[in-house]
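Hello,

I think I submitted the nicotinamide-adenine-dinucleotide job twice by accident. Can you confirm which output corresponds to this input? Input:
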Amino acid sequence: MGMAETGNKIEFMKRTILITGGAGFIGSHVVRRFVNKYPDYLIINADKLTYAGNLENLTDIENKTNYRFEKMDIVNKQQVLDLFKKYHFDGVIHLAAESHVDRSITGPDEFVFTNIVGTVNLLNAALGIWKDQPEGKRFYHISTDEVYGSLGAEGLFTETTPYDPKSPYSASKASSDHLVRAYKNTFKLPVVISNCSNNYGPNQFPEKLIPLVINNIRNNKPIPVYGKGENIRDWLFVEDHASAIDIIFHSGKTGETYNIGGENEWKNIDLIKLLCNIMDKKLGRQSGSSEKLITYVKDRAGHDMRYAIDSSKLTRELGWSPSLDFEHGLEKTVDWYLTNQKWMERIISGDYEKYYDQQYNKR
Ligand code: NAD
Ligand code: DAU
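Support: Only one job matched these inputs. Its output is below.
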């Protein structure tokens, strides 16, 4: 194992990297990118496999020699310490979280345990093994733009926008961000944080807007639109988030925060109508037929009105920009869900949980 620091850039040779939450939506894209792009790294994917964790997302790389999966719960302090003892990580990319706002409204406790306590367990474990030699080490915490609260019609979230979380989900993520910064300030833990806007793309759990709409249209089910459908989100293709994570992990400055976004704001109802259009074409249905499924339902409690990210710091300092425009990204996404209907069906029937038993209990 070795490492060298050249300016701000950290060159990792034969590094062992922990990626938490790697069986989830974004995590699986990050794991795939790192396993394929960095054959010299040993990538450890640690995931509890909650309802949102699905190892089927990683079948294409699961047999690679530089990849290992560890089923574990970050809330369990002993499991976290044992994992760090076993691998002596050089870097951590922490994505594991409870991630769905609606679930945080019906059951906030799990969000406090995983997002706050789980993050502290990881920070303590990293501190334990790095405190004498923090050089070249990195704890990268993946966060969300929701920590900044809700925007009115004007303005963008920047890295200095004051935190103002509004849901139990965003409050738990904001707490974890504060703790990560506190460990940098108090214990000199080498941390970096990024806050990203709404992701979309393959492998997203169908409780989230885009896969839910695609699946409901395919099955001729009502499309539930919260409130008047006027809330605005800034959408980024998941592989562009993974590329930003790659750049920030390797070249981000210790202690810094980077916002990541798509400069791609859409009112929910306009996005849903665009999806209806694409789906009508893909499914060979009469134009306008999917829009008939749109059904306005009770609004989400405390529904944030608008998110929009200014990611100019990341572009200016580290040269990142999104690679895909939204129309192409959305079409690619729709194609993926339509050609991977079995993936969706297995999730909906709950069958994917059997995959873990089949795949790992035979070893
Ligand atoms: P996801 O819900 O799809 O995946 C979360 C993963 O974490 C799952 O594999 C799950 O099994 C795992 N996990 C949950 N609790 C765990 C625990 N106690 N121990 C170990 N593993 C556990 O989430 P996602 O959408 O891929 O989001 C990943 C990260 O990115 C989260 O931290 C989220 O806050 C952040 N984020 C998400 C978005 C987005 O649009 N989805 C945008 C910005 C930031
Ligand atoms: O901004 C980043 C965040 O984006 C991430 O931190 C979260 O993990 C991620 O879940 C996402 O949060 P949102 O609440 O914005 O995403 P969701 O897909 O749940 O909803 C997007 C918008 O669509 C939101 O305004 C609510 C609305 N919506 C959602 C669902 C599921 C509907 O109108 N109907 C629905 O059925």
